[in-house]
Amino acid sequence: MLSQQTIETVQSTIPLLAEHGQTITQNFYEKLFVAHPELKNVFNLNNQQDGNQARALADAVFAYANNLTNLEALIPAVQRIANKHVSLGIKPEQYPIVGQYLLAAIQDVLSLPDDHPALTAWAEAYAVLADVFINTEEGLYKEKESVEGGWRGFREFVIDEVVTETPEVKSFYLKPKDKGVLPAFNGGQYVGIKVLPKNSEYEQIRQYSLSGQSGKDYLRITTKAELKGLVSNHLHNSPEETSVQLQVPAGIFNLDANANKHIFIAGGVGITPLLSMLYEAIDKGINPENILFIQCQRDETSQIFK
């Protein structure tokens, strides 16, 4: 647990974080990638270019500082981020690296001397948060590899079938190369998929919602070829039998089977997690009269899963 002095010191930096948070996180990513370019495969480089990644990290750091005396408020965010980390294959040894360059960025942007108490306090606070994530993620890894068909780390799959849904959307049926069984998954979950796109120096990992039904001998993802989508365009140009690496299904955006009514509203390719929830609702015997599914698209040619 953090001392009261540490908490007060960290929280005294909140106004500075509010003012300089995004600059700090941009500085952090620059330092991190210079020293550890191999970590570029963990981060979405498109999000790096448009600043989304830096903004998201700044918001997370700010939220942590604001809730040091009420860490329970962070549990939903920790669960969501931990599942995302599992889909990326994050390892415990990567947390000290991130901490080192985050502290260096705070020091640089705020022009703090080496012995400033704010750096000491933030080092302690980061260590506590890192332990929370490491323990949460280890629990998820163990849980997912212990079920029938489960695994830890990346598992090789092959694209067994490609179905063109619309001019810009395709479904990919992925089967494990080892021909082993697959674990059951919850509607709304996603997989982390790792590929080496053409003209990319580093492998890239993206998360795609599972659009199919649990219990099959394949996992289905459905993707739109985004204008600047490094991975989505790579997939759309990949023929059947292409190998890809997958993490085990993860994610906490799931069906509430105990709800009295179920209303699904999907727009475009955003239908994918909701469709797998619909499959699950039907499998669980939920009365179709208690389900309303609304699908929205630009026009008839853009309708997915007709």
- Extended strand count: 8
Q: Determine the N-to-C terminus distance.
A: 54 Å
> Could you describe the largest sheet, including whether it forms a barrel?
6 strands, antiparallel
Q: Low-confidence parts lasting 5 or more residues at pLDDT below 50?
A: none
Mean pLDDT across all amino acids: 93
Strand order across the biggest sheet? 4-3-6-1-2-5
Can you tell me the CATH topology of the largest domain? Globin-like
Query: CATH H-level name of the largest domain... which superfamily?
Result: Globins
The residue fraction in helices comes out at: 40-55%
**Which class best fits the helix and strand makeup?**
alpha+beta
The shape, in one word, is: globular
- What Rg do the Cα atoms give? 21 Å
Order of helices and strands: HHHHHHHEEEEEHEEHE
Approximate strand percentage: 15-25%
Q: Name the CATH architecture of the largest domain.
A: Orthogonal Bundle
Discrete helix count: 9
CATH top level of the largest domain? Mainly Alpha
Features:
alpha+beta, Globin-like, Elongation Factor Tu (Ef-tu), domain 3, six-stranded antiparallel beta sheet, two-stranded parallel sheet, 8 strands, 18% strand
Question: What does this molecule look like?
Answer:
This protein has 306 residues and is an alpha+beta fold. The protein is 43% helix and 18% strand. It has nine helices and eight strands. Strands 4-3-6-1-2-5 form a six-stranded antiparallel β-sheet, sandwiched between helices. The protein has a two-stranded parallel ribbon with strand order 7-8. Helix 9 (271-283) links the parallel strand 7 (262-267) and strand 8. Helix 2 (14-35) packs across helix 4 (52-66), helix 2 (14-35) crosses helix 6 and helix 6 (94-110) packs antiparallel against helix 7. It is globular and about 60 Å long. It starts with a helix and ends in a 10-residue tail after the last strand. The model has no long low-confidence stretch (mean pLDDT 93).
